[in-house]
Specification:
Elements (H helix, E strand, L loop, with lengths): L1 E9 L2 E9 L5 H20 L9 H12 L2 E3 L12 E3 L4 E3 L18
Antiparallel strand pairs: 1-2, 2-3, 3-4, 4-5
Length: 112
């Protein structure tokens, strides 16, 4: 994973943001995170506790690897907007949603 400053084009104008760029060399670490999440979720379930939600760092990293996008890590100063990833070629912001309860997407907020 590399941390870079990238210029993105939004309807509100061009701006520079800090972004995480994932590479194939990150797959092993992402697999470790996934296995740890599964283990924790199963342990919680074994005591009849709710399984832990899929962490955004995991779902967004996998999305970026598969879709060749970058993950934005900080909000844009002075602008009210919400997105997780950005496609540098298509110049589009992307909101990633994930869930750990099938078949429901439970992570949407009331304004989404």
């Amino acid at each position: 994973m590399k941390r870079k400053i990238v210029t993105i084009q939004l309807p509100e104008g061009k701006t520079e943001v800090e972004a995480l760029c994932f590479e194939n060399s990150d797959i092993t670490k992402i697999q470790e995170i996934y296995k740890a999440w599964i283990h924790l979720s199963n342990l919680l379930n074994s005591i009849e506790a709710r399984r832990v939600n899929l962490p955004e760092g995991l779902s967004e990293a996998v999305f970026c690897l598969c879709m060749n996008t970058v993950r934005t890590t900080k909000s844009i100063t002075g602008k009210k907007m919400s997105f997780d990833c950005y496609d540098l070629e298509a110049k589009k912001r992307i909101q990633v949603k994930a869930c750990s309860t099938l078949p429901d997407l439970t992570s949407f907020g009331p304004a989404s």
